[in-house]
Amino acid sequence: MEEIVREVRPCEDHGFIYVDLEALVSNYQFLKGQTRDCICAAVVKANAYGLGISEVAKSLTNAGCHTFFVATPAEAKELRSVNATADIYVLDGLFPQAASFYRTHNLRPVLNSRDEIRDWGHFCRTEKTPLPAALHIDTGMNRLGLGIDEIAGDNPLDSELESIEVALIMSHLACADDVSHPFNTLQLERFERCRTVFPETPASFANSAGILLGPAYHFDLVRPGIALYGSWPLNSGERALKTVMHLYGRLVQIRTMEAGESVGYGADYTLTRQSRIATVSVGYADGYIRALGSSNQQSPTCVAIAGHLAPVIGRVSMDLIAVDTTDVPQSKLERGQFVELIGDNISLDDVAARAGTISYEVLTRLSPRLPRVYKSSYSHS
Ligand SMILES: *Cc1c(COP(=O)(O)O)cnc(C)c1O
After folding, report:
1. What is the gyration radius of the CA atoms in the chain, in angstroms?
2. Would residue 61 count as lying in a domain?
3. DSSP reduced 3-state for 17
């Protein structure tokens, strides 16, 4: 903890997000280790799930990752500015008129439709070179991609694909977090059927959860996102990943209040005993989800103060929360001190569940107001 706080600006920072890049790399190696020597790409869309695309990509590149997926062309451009050589795939595909932007920044569209394929093919012909792209096949998610009848049906894409380098075919699982869901095998069968149309082309099927479904789901390249960032992607099994994201706020005020007093907006929470209440400097404007607040009827979320748990009481305000520190030794409570809201003691997955959401949303809602502080993944020797 002291090592972390050294990097924080004590006069300015009301909290911070500590990103453990060593843990990130360890999770990357764990996921790659689940496969038999597949290419392990990394999904770094939405600013690497809120943690900072540049730092995350640099660490993963150093760990041997050469293929990245982002959602938008702007994300891809930002990634390209810190990595001149990686293969960068853009999941949103190809917006109209965007092909030369992709060429300028050496990006690969994930082509989702016949129209996108036609545009890319047309551009390749004007450039007189087959440029790489992925084909996204929709095997049941019904969100993005070419229908399986467009791939394996009577009207093949052969002529449209002539001018393109199809570097990857891919599809995305809808229910991979649920290991025994019958939809997983259904999508797998469909993907295998499409794959026979492109027997020589590398194939990619698995996100984080898909990797843990086993080798049948791995194909040539896997695409983990959330598990890199420390969230266990299945709804079962042992959480074998390291904590990457640690969210800290600070103690602003500590005072004793009597039984019968209420705390926070709406006077929703009434103290049942004399209590030592501390106010912490993080609220929903920082991305601390408002649903984490508690009334007397609910069992509250906790924060950790020097390893002691303290429940969050009353509503979450924009910039503040109240915690009950009656059971924390007084010697551990000092104004200005840092308090863990998510991290090793308070897990991201538990916080997400208590907020009625998923870890993805908790991570990507973390506000830019909180500085990101990085623990390097390189040795300092
Ligand atoms: C976001 C995304 C991933 C990564 O999914 P995780 O569940 O975060 O591992 C992989 N593939 C596609 C197409 C995605 O949109």
Report:
1. 24
2. yes
3. strand
Among residues 45, 102, 284, 288, which one is catalytic? 45
Separation CA 206–CA 367 (nearest Å): 29
> Mutation test of ligand 1: which of 72, 173, 207, 359 has the most ligand atoms closer than 8 Å to its C-beta?
207
Residue 239's contacts (CB-CB under 8 Å, 6 or more residues apart) are: 232, 347, 349
Q: Could you tell me the pTM of the whole model?
A: 0.96
Task: List, in sequence order, every beta strand (DSSP E) within the chain.
Answer: 15-20, 39-40, 42-43, 67-70, 87-90, 108-111, 132-138, 146-147, 165-170, 203-204, 221-222, 245-257, 262-263, 269-270, 275-280, 302-305, 308-313, 321-324, 338-342, 372-375
CATH number of the domain enclosing 343? 2.40.37.10
Q: In terms of Cα–Cα distance, which of 377, 361, 371 is closest to 29?
A: 377
Q: Are residues 177 and 256 in the same domain?
A: no
Decide: 43 in ligand 1 pocket, CB within 6 A.
yes
pLDDT of 329 over the 70 cut: yes
Cβ atoms 59, 26 nearer than 8 A: no
Residues 295 and 182 in one domain: no
Please write the tens of the pLDDT for every residue from 199-226: 999 999 999 999 999 999 999 999 999 9
